């Protein structure tokens, strides 16, 4: 009888072990509506696929039932906090806008990795609101970023720095004083702070005094 129960317990133990779910893969996605082109706090979600075909998703952005407190996520750049990636823009550029997540959980004792590829800033350009500047009036240096997502967004001084050949820079405004009568045009350069290879150049005519 003792041998029978020992054999039965061994069989049940093997049966339970065989029924335990094993994670096959993990896929990471980000919320594109959070404007990752500009903002540094991005909601993410995980699709956790098991060998039996079941797929579970994380709470938050994906509205799943797999709680983030069961998961440890370590990104290779930036930081992670309860379903959000906190981006380091300069480091993101050096990583070609790809973040690798190392993931462990109660279901994933051996860590797995998943990549997230964020929209890349391909180029910047000036997009002036007027075709020339007038002495004594502020001229706004409007700069746009063109992203790999196909979206175009204005960039401010938190993202770009400016240099001008003449006049005075007041934040993102260019000012030519009334007494600077010899200036006929101003050359301006905008440089993306996180990647100095991305620049935009423009020449802005100055209105003549009798115009």
Q: Could you give a short description of this structure?
A:
The chain is mainly beta and 211 residues long. Helices cover 11% and strands 42% of the residues. It has helices at residues 2-19, 89-94, and strands at 23-30, 41-50, 55-57, 71-75, 79-81, 84-86, 98-105, 112-117, 121-126, 139-140, 143-147, 152-155, 160-164, 168-170, 173-175, 185-192, 199-205.
Domain count: the total is: 2
Helix content: 10-25%
> What number is the mean pLDDT?
90
Helix and strand string, N-terminal first? HEEEEEEHEEEEEEEEEEE
Distance between the termini: 110 Å
Class of secondary structure makeup: mainly beta
Tell me which oligomeric state these chains represent: single chain
Query: What fraction of the residues are assigned to beta strands by DSSP?
Result: 35-45%
| Main sheet characteristics | 5 strands, antiparallel
Radius of gyration: 28 Å
